[in-house]
Amino acid sequence: MDDRLAATSDCQLEQIAGFLPISDRLGTAGQPKSDAYPAIAAAGYQVVINLALTDSPNALPNEAEIASNLGLEYLHIPVIWDNPTLADFQAFANAMEAHRSQKIFVHCAANKRVSVFVYLYRLSQGVAETIARQDLAKIWTPNEIWQTFIETIAPDYLHKN
Asked: How far apart are CA 87 and CA 63, in angstroms?
């Protein structure tokens, strides 16, 4: 058994804090540990998008290198926890669009930022609000800052559904 498969058996995706598969091409989670990266690659993910800050809890200082060494493309879009912006969401949506034909793993510190961004992105793609909201609710009920952010961004997409 090669090292990658051995590591995969030791650290399955379900062991990553907050892991939630959204579809066969999209998975979300909190901060993966370095030993989870082989499982991410073995599961067929091709792109990792990190929305956490470099000083977030459990952040990996060499995360880009870890991902790259496994053949994963790594994108970092740092989103300040208490100040998400439209520009942050647009950068995320652009990254998702640029990689829409690939399998994408999106994470932040606890999957809270990610769950809101993925909720909004799914609305922009025509997913019914009730379906997108169910997955968001599996992670958390957004606090006042994040609910206000949703209410600012979501109306642009809700009229499409």
From this structure: 23
